[in-house]
Design goal:
By secondary structure, the protein is α/β, with parallel strands linked by helices. It has 20 helices and 7 strands. It folds into 4 domains: 20-146, Rossmann fold; 152-227, Helicase, Ruva Protein, domain 3 (Orthogonal Bundle); 239-325, Zinc Finger, Delta Prime, domain 3 (Up-down Bundle); 351-417, post-AAA+ oligomerization domain-like (Orthogonal Bundle). The strands form 2 sheets. A 5-stranded parallel sheet has the order 2-3-4-1-5, sandwiched between helices. Strands 6-7 form a two-stranded parallel ribbon. The longest helix is centred in the middle third of the chain and has 18 residues, at 190-207. Residues 229-233 have low confidence and may be disordered.
Length: 424
């Protein structure tokens, strides 16, 4: 059986790795650790096909330390303990766990002692936010490195590298006339890109003559991709395409499409918590103050499906999806926190105005901490127009109420209160 193209071209050194310069480029933190031969236990967090498994293999190859690999999809506590027993005999080993977010709490607990004592150096790979999916005791013992999706130039370089360096493809007379379809379908996933490229090249080879120039076009790629689209697979390439379609359908106020993509995930066996967590995020990100009840509904949905599970959770998810999709939309809070964070990055840690500082001690009071603060409830309408922002950014408007009935009410209220300071 032929090894897939993505596996044939897997890099063996950091210099061969495409992308992730912030982690593996010259002078980067991870490269320094590898060069010094002292790597910490770590969690590699990023989307599929950006180099998590490759980096783990490169580390093992560079450090020449015994290397064990487990998949959280199929491994259990027994497998973890067997690796730890082997590592004890060897005095030290690297354990790479792919999809570590799929390990249960008991499975993750089994790793703690060995990681803490240095029996194993753990490298975990996850596509999910480790803050939610990795237990805090284990997370505190690991460095978290965030991997980024590959950009267009990275993906084009991979295509060219594959056609020139792969023993099979380099024998074919292939010209890439257009790359848009290859890049768009891959979505920044190198493995998906290379597997699709191989599929297209195989198709060309079957229909062409060996000496004839074979041309890859966007139309050809789309035709082949559409014929070979598989059913939903929560461990496969369509995972992120389906959840993207799901979220965008709800954001676009289409409950019918929302239900269709929900059904695709349910029928594919998607984790009920994964779906409910995305709805919880959407309730704030895309609805927010246009309908504050949306967050309550999504939170209740999350709690309920955790208690009930499938198949009944399908009903609860359906109710939440149709409610969120049918709700007025606003991303004002999302834009607001983004603008506020940008101000923090731009101006740094500006001092808190003295009158709103905490003054728990006599010394702080003597230094005028809290002096002049006006307790809002002592004033008419429970409001006193005083300064709450640092002087350098006084008057900055981060939250701009959206154009919907609920937030128009908020706008009128804020405008009445702050007419002399903020422009609403």
């Amino acid at each position: 059986m032929q090894v897939p193209l993505a596996e044939r071209l897997r890099p063996n050194t950091l210099d061969e790795l495409v992308g992730q310069e912030h982690l593996t480029g010259k002078g980067s933190i991870l490269r320094k650790a590898i060069e010094q031969g002292k790597i910490p236990s770590m969690i590699l967090w990023g989307p599929p096909g950006v180099g998590k498994t490759t980096i783990a293999n490169i580390i093992a190859h560079a450090l020449k330390i015994p290397f064990y690999q487990l998949s959280a999809i199929s491994a259990g506590v027994k497998d973890v303990r067997e690796v730890i027993d082997h590592a004890k005999k060897l005095h030290h080993a690297i354990l790479f766990i792919d999809e570590i977010h799929r390990f249960s709490k008991s499975q993750q607990d089994a790793l703690l002692g060995a990681v803490e004592k240095g029996i194993i150096t753990l490298i975990g790979a996850t596509t999910e936010n480790p803050s939610f999916e990795v237990i805090s005791a284990l997370l505190s013992r690991c460095q978290v490195y965030v991997l980024k999706p590959l950009d267009e130039e990275d993906l084009k370089a991979l295509i060219q590298h594959a056609l020139e360096k792969d023993e099979t493809l380099s024998q074919l007379n292939i010209k890439v006339a257009e790359t848009t379809a290859l890049i768009n379908i891959s979505g920044g996933d190198a493995r998906k890109l290379l597997n699709l490229l191989e599929l297209v090249c195989d198709s060309l080879e079957e229909g062409g003559e060996a000496r004839k120039e074979l041309v890859i076009t966007d139309k050809l790629v789309m035709d082949i991709a559409q014929k070979r689209i598989a059913i939903y697979d929560k461990q496969g390439e369509q995972h992120y395409d389906i959840i993207s379609a799901f979220i965008k359908s709800i954001r676009g106020s289409d409950p019918n499409a929302g239900l269709y993509w929900l059904a695709r995930m349910i029928e594919g066996g998607e984790d009920v918590k994964f779906i409910a967590r995305r709805l919880l995020i959407l309730a704030s990100e895309d609805i927010g103050n246009a309908n504050p009840t949306a967050l309550v509904m999504a939170n209740t949905c999350f709690d309920a499906v955790n208690k009930i599970g499938y198949p009944e959770s399908a009903l609860i998810l359906s109710q939440c999806v149709t409610y969120l999709a049918s709700s007025p939309k606003s991303n004002s809070s999302t834009i607001g926190i983004g603008a506020a964070q940008e101000a923090v990055r731009r101006y740094g840690d500006l001092p808190v105005p003295l009158h709103i500082r905490n003054a728990p001690t006599r010394l702080m009071k003597d230094l005028d901490y809290g002096k002049g603060y006006q307790y809002s409830h002592n004033y008419e309408n429970n409001f006193s127009q005083q300064e709450y922002l640092p002087a350098e950014i006084s008057g900055s408007v981060f939250y701009e109420p959206g154009q919907n009935a609920r937030e128009e009410e908020l706008r009128k209220f804020l405008k009445l209160l702050w007419k002399d300071k903020y422009k609403y």
